[in-house]
Amino acid sequence: MNRRELILAGMALGVTPAIGAGQTEASAGQENPVPQPAPGSPPTILLNDYLPRSLYRIPITNINKAKYPVIDAHCHGHGPLSVDEMVKMMDTVGVEKTVIFTGASTVDRFAEVSREYAKYPDRFDMWCMFDLDDFGKPEFEKKSIKSLEDCRRAGARGVGELHDKGRGFVWQFASRRPRRTGRPRPAYAPLNGGPTYTRNPSPPNPNAPNGPHADDPRLDVLWNRAGQLGMPINIHVSDPIWSYQKMDYTNDGLMNGWSWRIILEPGMYDHDQLVNSLDRTVQKHPKTIFIACHLCNLDYDLTRLGEMFDRSPNLYADIAARFAETATIPRFTRQFLMKYPDRVAYGTDVTYNEPFFRVTFRILETEDEHFYERGLVETANFNFNYHWTLNAFGLPDNVLKNIYHDNALNIFKKAQENVA
Ligand SMILES: [Zn+2]
Question: Are 17 and 109 part of one and the same domain?
Answer without folding.
Answer: no
